[in-house]
Amino acid sequence: MDGDESKAPPSVGTVTAAKAIATTQRSRARRRLRELRPLLWFVPVLVLLLTVTLYPTVFVVWMSFQKTRYYDLAGFVGFANYVDTLSSRAFWETTYTSLAYMAGSLVLSLGLGVLAALVLNSLKRGGAVLRVLTLFPWTLSMAVVGTMWLWLFNPSYGPISYYLRKVGVAPGLMLGDPELALWLTVLVTSWWSFPYAMVIITAAIQSIPTELYEAVSIDGGSWRAKFRYVTFPHLVPTLGSTALTLGILYLTLITLLIVLTGGGPIGATTTLSFEVFRGTVQAVNIGPIAVYSIAILLANVGLGVLYMRLTGRVTG
Amino acid sequence: MRAANRKLRDQATLLMLAALVVGSALGPMLWAISTSLKNEVNAVSAIPSLIPSPATLSNYLSVFSHKTFLIELWNSILYAAGAVVIALAVGIPAGYAASRYAFPGKRVVMLLILATSMVPGVALLVPTFYLLDHLGLLNNRLVLVVILASRIAPQTVWFMQNFIDAVPLEIDEAAHMDGASRRQILTRVVLPLIRPGIAAVGVIGAITTWNDYITIAVFAPDTAKRTLQVALVNQVFDAVGISWSFTMAFALIASLPVILMFLLVQKWFIAGLTAGAVKG
What we know:
The complex is a heterodimer.
Chain A: H1 4-7, H2 13-35, H3 43-64, E1 66-69, E2 72-76, H4 80-86, H5 89-122, H6 127-134, H7 136-139, H8 142-152, H9 159-166, H10 181-206, H11 210-218, H12 223-251, H13 255-260, H14 272-282, H15 286-311
Chain B: H1 2-36, H2 40-43, H3 58-65, H4 69-100, H5 106-117, H6 121-135, H7 141-165, H8 169-177, H9 182-193, H10 195-210, H11 214-219, H12 228-237, H13 244-264, H14 266-274
């Protein structure tokens, strides 16, 4: 193919020149194409992600500008869904529940995570094995975790209510109590996720140079001083990034709520994500649910970008 | 003497705290195991006891002989295996190219993969349900597998990229000199070297997929398409007819593959959690 020029009759110089230009253009295009050839390796994953993830993401934005009846789109309505949703009490109450749930779970799971990491890391031997055992809850599905705790919290036959009665506290309805349900859900969420925090914090503790502890020892500092002046300052960035990872998880978590409370009692545990699930399966009017979805999406992307800024890494 | 005493006391406190940590993680699981070994009457006795007496395996036998158990188990295995195979099939070439090539647009491609990983499954529930419903693709096993694969695809690409980064480029070059094509270099030379990594990514992906409830529950309302996780949650919904000893046995059986897989790759699992999470 590259031999075209030589075959051209020399008498028609202009044609040859034009041909030559066309050929160099063609070969440049071909070179460019060859440079792009590695892109082919990405085609399968891009096709998958574009159709299954990106297309629905764009579509939910489109939906949010549509008037909807059940699962039917009935025409463009501009920002009406946004105005309706953002001016409704339910949206802000749900947002507040999400934030309270996230904050409570973060405080408890990070606190327990730090404690577990410090304790198991201080053991002379066996720490690694005990860490693997402690990590078990994290591998369980939310459906299993929810079912186990639903049974533990059972107001009639569960061991927790039994021992509460034994020490003279009326257990009440436990998860059926609107005042209590969110906090019991926080407790279960933390039981499930503190092992994750523990593993990450352990890695951070193990990366602290031992000379720093020795320096405190020489100055006569106690373990408290060591924690205050060496361990804690070193953990702060890790705590920040772990809080973001877990925050994203808590924000988007649904299954545990479905099993434990079903969003109730009387909406006490209805988070933004739970509302999206409820709205999807009930499908009475999905326009506002699209707005909820976008709110979660934006919050998620915001936290994810913050995580990348903080760590220079991508979330797993 | 006093210093020695204090050291002993500190040691004892530490051991107690360690027992408390491990105990609080495993306690609820022990209670589930205990309940699963009780008969239905003892499970709801007025005085709950951790030791089942009499202990019985009848709940486990009932789970195995339950009429829909086998199909649910089969679906769970099928979806997890299918999703992992697809994720690896699309993730390995992408990870290889991400590690070995520099080309115009690579940044855009990697950013696109990153961006999709930031879209939470929740935000996709409504639009995906709408699209599947209108295309008549609800309750479709292949569609479920593809959706589950898309959730683990980004992490598969990154893991593969990291594993292949660790393989020296000279190995590629040597194979190239011997006349191997790019595809042969990947399949015959690089992949065998990162086999343990592939196994770990596969197992971690399988755990994620096996544990999924929401994707299957929403996009496959048909009970013949549901998994063990969905079946478990449906038992809980039936608050009156529930047998807690049966449900606990069911939950434990549904968790056993996950725990075994976790133990199999726990070093990788932990390495995967901490990769890049620590900033010194």
